[in-house]
Write the structure tokens for this entry.
Amino acid sequence: AQSVTQLGSHVSVSEGALVLLRCNYSSSVPPYLFWYVQYPNQGLQLLLKYTSAATLVKGINGFEAEFKKSETSFHLTKPSAHMSDAAEYFCAVSGGSYIPTFGRGTSLIVHP
Amino acid sequence: DAGVIQSPRHEVTEMGQEVTLRCKPISGHDYLFWYRQTMMRGLELLIYFNNNVPIDDSGMPEDRFSAKMPNASFSTLKIQPSEPRDSAVYFCASRGTATYNEQFFGPGTRLTVL
């Protein structure tokens, strides 16, 4: 069994501020973890993924996430928010079946 | 690569009508997924196929929903009869064994049932 919890349905930051989107997971096997981004009226696209290599994963657009097994977390960060980062972000986990379970999503709002 | 292609992008229909959504996965991908996204329920997996065979349809909400994959390059999701509560964005996604579990999503079909 696997599940994902994204803390906060909305996160609001100022342009230039740190972005932190939280994701906690549950998995009965070593997980694969993903962050996807969805811009308005578009499908989801992969930001980054953890597949049991380095625990700090770097993705596109300056985003990165750190896998912390002890905390069962995979939080997404970006040092400096840009207006173009405003979107919906989804955390997902997959285990032995390789079929991902998605979180409910977090809407990132960036203020000028 | 053209990516996952879905048609139509928007569909407006009246309650009781049949609706057919179409998907062309990325060439060479052997998994295909259908999702539904709503504000209330988020992103829900409806059904997925492996090598054109339906593997898990436990997410299909009712018998009114059916999905087929007659060949590796085409899949349909049909709703008959449609109801207003079926209004949502429906996504198709595909995945290949070489992409290490990454799913590639289509742009979605926004369905409105009046």
Summary: Chain B touches chain A at residues 4, 42-43, 45, 48, 56, 91, 93, 100-103, 105-108 (CB under 8 Å).
